[in-house]
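Structure tokens please, single chain.
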Amino acid sequence: MQTVPSSLSPKYGAPISLEVAKRVMVAAEQEALANHWPMVIAIVECGGNLVMLHALDHAQHGSVAVARHKAETAVNFKRPTKMFEEAVSGGGLGLRFLSVGGICALEGGLPLLVDGQVVGGIGVSGMNATQDGQVAAAGANVLLD
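Here you go.
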């Protein structure tokens, strides 16, 4: 899985192309389908604008907004949404993230990096947070090849 070093925030790159977004989407869909998980997968470009959204058969309606929100959070904050989930679940100072608008503190959102730059984000919703993260990672990992 792609991670963002905590000491260095990557720069934004050129927006993800539709061709690259399709490759990411195919890999994420294959992971979801292989596990028989009805999910929604959203891909946004580096400005947070929606590029692709796929709702697999029998995905719950509420996951459409959640998947997009996860992708937007990953882009806007240049980090996996799991980091916010862990901070909030840890309590203490981590609870301050609940007061920040625009954060989805649920695993399943990842920034999409090309040459170390954020070109977009992927967000997945429909199962539990760990499974959402697994599908998002399958999509994001295509960019490591």
